[in-house]
């Protein structure tokens, strides 16, 4: 329905409205469509001190805006001829849940691994909480938790609590420390795992294992969680629970989350902001609502009874963008793009004039899947009706 030119124009719009990362001008990097103001008002005062020394002023004096928790600058990762990440720059404010989307091979995992300091970039830098993850990986590691391969990171022969103790121990924390134990208890409680704490992970359901993996990523009092496909394989209920928990951690503790997911509903429900990656480059960086708005041309699904002639079909196709046209006996189902809702009566009239009897007319709104497909150059074949 939208011409490649329209998609390109949209792509250009997204790239040009998003300022390049400017680490000295935070106003530039703060986006109006996010609730940054609300998010910076966290209940855990310690959390706002995430930049190793640069902290907010709790004594009532005017505060300066804090630097972003994550700053990626001109990051490039090449594997011989393949440019997996191509000159990517962006920054993330505290308490944001950022979704990284992209088709297979787009560079999402490479980007995440480079942000975690697990890959040496060909060029560019990543700073987490003000720490360069490649110059000082150990110090950076203390501030981040990650699940890169779901529950496979977790030790299945250990109990849930032993896993938490192990992952906390990697950063020198002792589970015997009452403060650490209290944190683990709170985490288990929040994830509804408190009564399973002494169970061997192997005996838990898949969804529970996934939650244990998340608990391990957060076992230390981290500022940032990198989660690769956190809801993969979860049933609907567990997926909803996990999303709720991540939202709560972001809102109440100021946890910053970077996640990848192929599940658009997860991203649409959960993320404040979406980075769409394609061929190693960021092709869009915006709020979910803004991205969907960008492709807000509606379509209408019309069902009519009565045989429509080939001439009628051709005439409608000549005047409108027909996304699909299916005839099944006497029934025709057509999906037609409309630039203006006002065009609907005229379009319906064309079907009636052609001998059809209207059965139903439904407006179909675009969603994140549609925006994603447009941005990555794929074409949508179906639209969901809302
Ligand atoms: N170790 C490696 N050596 C060579 N090429 C690699 C390596 N890792 C990734 N690549 C290539 O880099 C590109 C990006 O891969 P990456 O795994 O980051 O994509 P992705 O977006 O995570 O994909 P998927 O959604 O399929 O997991 C791909 O072309 C991939 O083949």
From TrEMBL:
Q: Which residues form the ABC transporter domain?
A: 70-304
What are the UniProt keywords, alphabetically?
Answer: ATP-binding, Nucleotide-binding, Transport
Q: Which InterPro entries match?
A: AAA+_ATPase, ABC_transporter-like_ATP-bd, ABC_transporter_ATP-binding, P-loop_NTPase
Pfam families, per database record: ABC_tran (PF00005)
Tell me the organism.
Answer: Haloferax marinum
The record's region (Disordered) falls at 1-71
Signal peptide as annotated in the record? none
This chain's protein is named ATP-binding cassette domain-containing protein
Transport is among the record's keywords: yes
The molecular function terms of the Gene Ontology recorded here are: ATP binding; ATP hydrolysis activity
């Amino acid at each position: 329905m939208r011409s490649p030119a329209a998609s390109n124009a949209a792509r250009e719009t997204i790239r040009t409205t998003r300022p390049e990362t400017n680490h000295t001008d935070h106003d530039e990097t703060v986006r109006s469509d996010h609730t940054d103001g609300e998010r910076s008002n966290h209940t855990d005062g310690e959390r706002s001190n995430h930049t190793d020394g640069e902290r907010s002023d709790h004594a009532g004096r005017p505060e300066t805006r804090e630097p972003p928790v994550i700053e990626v600058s001109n990051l490039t990762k090449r594997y011989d001829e393949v440019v997996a990440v191509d000159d990517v720059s962006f920054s993330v404010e505290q308490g944001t849940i950022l979704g990284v989307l992209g088709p297979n091979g787009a560079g999402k995992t490479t980007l995440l691994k480079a942000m975690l300091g697990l890959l040496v970039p060909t060029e560019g830098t990543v700073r987490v909480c003000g720490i360069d993850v490649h110059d000082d990986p150990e110090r950076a590691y203390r501030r981040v938790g990650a699940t890169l391969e779901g529950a496979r990171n977790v030790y299945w022969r250990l109990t849930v609590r032993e896993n938490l103790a192990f992952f906390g121990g990697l950063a020198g924390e002792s589970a015997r420390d009452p403060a650490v134990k209290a944190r683990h208890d709170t985490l288990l409680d929040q994830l509804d795992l408190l009564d399973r704490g002494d169970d061997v992970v192997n005996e838990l359901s898949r969804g529970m294992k996934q939650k244990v993996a998340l608990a391990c990523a957060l076992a230390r009092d981290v500022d940032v969680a990198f989660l690769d496909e956190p809801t993969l394989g979860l049933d609907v209920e567990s997926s909803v629970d996990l999303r709720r928990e991540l939202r709560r951690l972001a809102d109440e503790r100021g946890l910053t989350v970077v996640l990848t997911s192929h599940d658009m509903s997860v991203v649409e429900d959960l993320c404040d902001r979406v980075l769409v990656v394609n061929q190693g480059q960021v092709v869009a960086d915006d709020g979910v609502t803004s991205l969907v708005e960008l492709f807000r041309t509606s379509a209408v699904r019309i069902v009519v009874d009565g045989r429509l002639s080939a001439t009628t079909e051709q005439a409608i196709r000549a005047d409108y963008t027909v996304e699909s046209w299916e005839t099944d006996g006497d029934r025709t189902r057509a999906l037609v793009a409309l630039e203006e809702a006002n065009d609907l009566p005229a379009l319906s009239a064309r079907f009636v004039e052609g001998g059809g009897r209207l059965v139903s007319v439904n407006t179909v709104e675009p969603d994140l899947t549609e925006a994603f497909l447009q941005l990555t150059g794929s074409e949508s074949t179906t639209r969901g009706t809302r």
